[in-house]
């Protein structure tokens, strides 16, 4: 019985280590709300769509949140987005 407990603990640690070592596969893009012009960073790993449906995709996908933030800053400076 003790061997099974040790084996289960070892497997649990191995799975945890593997999950922690795997890089996140998230990507982001900007959405722009049609009524206000407000732009928002959207995480593509979220399985739902934004609500309500009055938006459109305003940019291509980028791999990191920092890249999306820089893209939003550029859109604000160019006047493509408000606030």
Written overview of the protein:
The structure is a single chain. Strands 2-1-3 form a 3-stranded antiparallel beta sheet. With 83 residues, the protein is of the alpha+beta class. β1 (28-33) and β2 (39-43) form a beta hairpin. Helices cover 41% and strands 17% of the residues.
Main attributes of the structure:
83 residues, alpha+beta, 3-stranded antiparallel sheet, 2 helices, 41% helix
List the helices and strands and how they pair.
Elements: H1 2-21, E1 28-33, E2 39-43, E3 55-57, H2 65-78
Antiparallel strand pairs: 1-2, 1-3
Task: Summarize the main sheet.
Answer: 3 strands, antiparallel
- In order across it, which strands form the biggest sheet? 2-1-3
What is the general shape?
elongated
Mean pLDDT value = 80
Strand content: 15-25%
How many DSSP helices? Answer: 2
Order of helices and strands: HEEEH
Radius of gyration: 20 Å
- Quickly give the structural class: alpha+beta
Low-confidence stretches: 17-22
Helix content: 40-55%
SS elements, strand count: 3
Distance between the termini: 62 Å
Write a concise synopsis of the structure shown.
The protein is α+β, with helices and mostly antiparallel strands.
């Amino acid at each position: 019985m003790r061997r099974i407990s040790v084996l289960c603990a070892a497997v649990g640690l191995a799975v945890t280590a593997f999950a922690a070592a795997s890089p996140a596969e998230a990507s982001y893009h900007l959405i722009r709300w049609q009524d206000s012009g407000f732009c928002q960073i959207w995480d593509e790993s979220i399985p739902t769509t934004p609500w309500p449906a009055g938006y459109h995709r305003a940019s291509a996908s980028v791999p990191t949140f920092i890249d999306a933030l820089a893209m939003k800053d550029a859109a604000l400076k160019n006047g493509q987005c408000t606030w």
